[in-house]
Each structure stands twice: as structure tokens, then as C-alpha cells.
Write a structure and sequence with these properties.
Structural class: alpha+beta
Radius of gyration: 29 Å
Number of strands: 22
Distance between the termini: 42 Å
Strand order of the largest sheet: 3-2-1-4-6-5
Helix content: 25-40%
Shape: elongated
């Protein structure tokens, strides 16, 4: 965006250049504005309805009604009246804010708000929020004070996938004062949330007590801090590219695991970068202390083959590092299956999918009805053709199936005979002959 410090003011035309120029959104995009009724989101919504290429027909507003303030009903009515005046659809979504993992009411409300906005978004719809330059600067300072890394210092991104669409923050280079100037110049009347003045909250303390002092000495501080966030985001993106390249070299095809020998060839910072990226991809949180502990554990031959913390379970086995996401199976009830349609196995988080084939899989004539069980110990399987009877425990060891996966492997029994071991083996005499109709079993994650 052309610098606002060079006197380019906020306007519908500027918003158009950001949306369809810098962010390269399709001209036929449909937009949803997260509309609180405050000055920032009102300025954004008003400008958007006047933006060439947008307009009321392609815009709607979503107001999340938390009910946390005595005026919440009045704010919702105000938002509906504003939208009616602008000629845009307004959706009021009432939510109940409950505790979220020990979060305070403001953080819990924010989490609930984003969850509902994500649910509300239509296919390919673009959700716009009114976060501006001052918000970005405050976020950078808060993250620095928390000792955050590049991810935190990147603050809020301009554009990310979100639900079925996309979340875009087009105003991150716009000072908050510009949005207020725009609203005053057009006679817009907005609501004021008194909690925004409560300096018991860290962001408000920073906004009302700290930032004025900083700007007294450095007037351009918000723009400089927002620029620092962009630099941090670029550095973070570069580190993620390096991590993805390292992951490709260390990964094991077909297995969610990394080769320890390859990991040991990396420097400590590069190893930490790779492991952080790997865990994030697996949906695992990892703070600095946990990451340091993990890097140290991976870099040597430990006495324990397992390391864990809340939400993470990492194990070493036969030269590989696994991130174990399997749930415990305490009480599994055997299931009857006729192999004619997919079988959902919720206790294991998977689905057994049959595929009819000739000369492969379980012979339909000899096992048209099977019982799906888990290991109990002592199972025997003879692998055709001409294989000897072998204990399942030994077969799984030789195949390199990790110990924690063996107890979750679905076994197919015809009567008391083991007919198939998951999607690994079919046991004689239940394997289909060359010209015989059979069923091949595929195991898929349960959606």
C-alpha cells in the first residue's frame, strides 16, 4: 500500500487497491465484514459498500452478540439499523461465552467469536476484519513482552485461509486515526464499548498508558512496529521453507515419522526449526522449554524412548521418530461385518473400506461374514502361498509395526480363525485364489 505517511488518506478507492490490487482478490469476491458497531469496523463496512468492485450486493455484515455487556442488545440493534441504512444483509449471531482452557472472559469471547465466524463463512467468501496499524503495533509489543519468537512478532497476518473461505485484514497499514477521521467526515455514529477503556486488560494498558508515551518520543512508532511485523513474517516464511525442505529429506514415505540419522546431520537451530514445523503441522503446541527439551532428546541416544507433554507424545523406534496421535482403546466391542460396505470403527478412529477384486484379498466364498477384533495375544497367521504358521507378534515385529500401533490393528476373524490382519496380510486358507472373487481391505482415517 502506498504509505499513508505520504498523506494518502483512507478512502473506498484505497480499499479497492488493497483488496483487488495488493491482495489480488477476484473481482467477483463476496465479502463478510466482522461488524462490532465500533468506529473501525463501521468505517470498513461503509467504505466497502462504496468500493468499486464491491458494493452492497456483494457485502454482508456479521455481528457476534456475546451478551457480556448490559448494552449488548442495543449494540446489536444499532448494527442491524446501520446495515439496513447501507442496504447490506446483517446477521446477528448470539453466542454464550464459556470458559476455554482457563482463559479469561475477553480471550474466551475472542475465541468463541472466531469459531462462530469460521462456521458462518460460505464457500470462497472473504471475511474482512478492521484490525489496523495501531492494533498491529500493540500486538507486536505484547508479543515481545511475552518473549515470543518470530511467529509472535509477525503479529496478525494480512490473509489466511479461514473455514470455507479466507480471512483478510486489509487495514494493517492504516492508522486508527485515519479510520476515525473517515467516520467523522461522513457523520457516522458508532457504539463505544466501555471495556476498551479498562486498563486492567494488558492491551488497553498498552494502548492508553504506554503507547502515548512512546509516540511522544517516536511519533512514527506504530508504523515502525507494523513494519517490523512484516519483516518478522518474511523471516518466518523463509524459515518455514527451509523446514519444509528439511522435512522432505528426513521424512519416511508412507509413514508419519522422521529418520533420526538424517535429523542428527542438522545443526541445532535447524533441527529446532524442523521439529517446530513438524509439530505445528501435526497440530501440537510447543513452547521454547518443550522444544529445547525435545532437541536435546533427539540429539542423543536417551535412556527413554519416549518424551511427552500435554498434547504431544513422541517416540523413537528402530531409527525413526514418531509423533503418536493414536487414542487409547480401553474398551473395544467386537463388530460383525459382511464386507459389503465400509465399516466405521469409531473406537479406533478409522474406517475399513472393502474393494472387490479377483484373485486378491479375503475370499468371499470362505469368509462372507467376519468379526472385527483387536489383539488378545497368541494369534497365528499363515501367509500364502506356502508360508509357515507364525505368531502374529513375530510377524508384526518383522514388519516393523511400532509397538503402540499393534494393539490398535483391526483383525478379521472367520469364526475363531484369523482371516486377515488389517490391510497387511490375508491368512490361509482365507486368501482368494487366482480366479476367485475376493475383497481387499483398505484402512482410512475416520472423517
Amino acid at each position: 500500500m502506498a504509505s499513508l505517511k505520504r498523506r494518502e488518506v483512507f478512502s473506498p478507492q484505497l480499499l479497492e487497491r488493497v483488496l483487488f490490487g495488493e491482495l489480488n482478490l477476484p473481482r467477483d469476491s463476496r465479502f463478510a465484514v466482522a461488524f462490532s458497531g465500533g468506529v473501525d469496523s463501521f468505517a470498513l463496512l461503509h467504505a466497502l459498500t462504496s468500493t468499486p468492485g464491491a458494493g452492497p450486493q456483494t457485502v454482508r455484515a456479521i455481528h457476534i452478540h456475546h451478551g457480556l455487556h448490559v448494552s449488548a442488545d442495543d449494540w446489536a440493534q444499532h448494527c442491524a439499523a446501520v446495515c439496513a441504512q447501507l442496504g447490506v444483509e446483517c446477521t446477528i449471531v448470539r453466542v454464550t461465552v464459556a470458559g476455554h482452557l482457563g482463559l479469561g472472559p475477553e480471550a474466551a469471547a475472542r475465541m468463541e467469536r472466531y469459531d462462530r465466524l469460521r462456521e458462518m463463512l460460505s464457500d470462497k467468501e472473504v471475511l474482512l476484519t478492521a484490525h489496523h496499524e495501531n492494533d498491529q503495533a500493540e500486538t507486536v509489543l505484547l508479543q515481545l513482552l511475552r518473549g515470543a519468537g518470530l511467529g509472535g512478532m509477525s503479529a496478525v497476518p494480512r490473509s489466511v485461509p479461514f473455514g470455507r473461505g479466507q480471512l483478510v485484514r486489509p487495514l494493517l497499514d492504516v492508522p486508527g486515526s485515519e479510520l476515525t477521521r473517515y467516520a467523522l467526515g461522513r457523520g457516522l455514529a458508532w457504539v463505544e464499548d466501555p471495556s476498551n477503556q479498562d486498563c486492567r486488560y494488558s492491551r488497553n494498558f498498552l494502548r492508553h498508558r504506554v503507547m502515548p508515551l512512546i509516540m511522544e518520543r517516536w511519533p512514527a512508532a506504530p508504523a515502525a512496529l507494523a513494519r517490523g511485523a512484516r519483516h518478522a513474517a518474511s523471516a518466518r516464511a523463509l524459515l518455514e521453507e527451509v523446514a519444509d525442505e528439511d522435512l522432505a529429506r528426513c521424512a519416511v514415505p508412507g509413514v508419519v515419522a522422521l529418520r533420526l540419522e538424517a535429523l542428527h546431520g542438522l545443526s541445532v537451530p535447524r533441527l529446532a526449526n524442523l521439529l517446530r514445523r513438524w509439530l505445528v503441522r501435526g497440530g501440537v503446541g510447543c513452547d521454547t522449554r518443550q522444544l529445547d527439551r525435545l532437541v536435546h532428546w533427539v540429539g542423543k541416544e536417551p535412556a527413554s524412548a519416549r518424551i511427552s507433554w500435554p498434547g504431544a507424545d513422541l517416540r523413537r523406534y528402530r531409527g525413526l521418530l514418531y509423533h503418536v496421535t493414536s487414542r487409547r482403546v480401553d474398551h473395544f466391542i467386537p463388530l460383525m461385518w459382511d464386507l459389503s460396505a465400509p465399516l466405521r470403527v469409531p473406537a479406533l478412529g478409522l474406517m475399513l473400506v472393502p474393494s472387490p477384486e479377483t484373485g486378491r484379498g479375503v475370499a468371499c466364498a470362505r469368509a462372507s461374514q467376519v468379526e472385527v477384533r483387536l489383539r488378545r495375544g497368541g494369534e497365528i497367521c499363515r501367509i500364502p502361498p506356502g508360508g509357515h504358521r507364525r505368531r502374529l507378534k513375530k510377524l508384526l515385529q518383522d514388519r516393523g509395526v511400532p509397538p503402540w500401533e499393534r494393539g490398535r490393528l483391526p483383525l478379521l476373524f472367520a469364526g475363531e480363525d484369523l482371516a486377515a490382519v488389517g490391510d497387511l496380510w490375508v491368512c490361509a486358507p482365507y486368501a482368494a485364489n487366482n480366479d476367485e472373487r475376493g475383497t481387499v481391505i483398505h484402512i482410512e482415517p475416520l472423517a
